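New to this. Explain these tokens.
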Amino acid sequence: MQIIDKLIFVGFISSCSGIKGDVTVKSYTANPQDICKLPLFTQDNTKVNLKLIRQNSNGDLICKLNDISDRNIAETLVKQKLYCHRSCLPKVKADEFYIEDLKDLKVTDEAGDKIGTVLGIYNFGAGDIIEIKLEDNKTIMLPFDNNFFPLITAEHVVCTKLDYD
């Protein structure tokens, strides 16, 4: 797996909070508050500074963003995705990976034959889902768990239960 210093999606601004320009941030870091410690950027490489005010019981963060103190300005930033450079994230252990590193990896069956390519990994609330573009250009989504994907390496993802017809 080639590791490059690309921007990694780590959270987004989900809404405004109050009248002073504070925002609610949904963080995808292991510890939600860690997003405030990272050097953050928008997709167009604009620097973002988050100052944590508090964490809600659901894990979302209420933050001051770039010293904005006007709700109208903050509202223009709702749904803005937040990124950091991969080199700023902690190193992973040998058996761990960042989801971003799996994108574009080859998906094989147990015999090593290519069946597709990883398009993305998503979580809609009930667990991780992997989207695979098959060799015939169809796409499928499967639960991203050890039952379907018992082996992940730097070169490929092994899928053992492929039944999409």
Q: What stands out?
A: The two ends are 30 Å apart (CA to CA). Helices lie at 71-75, 99-102.
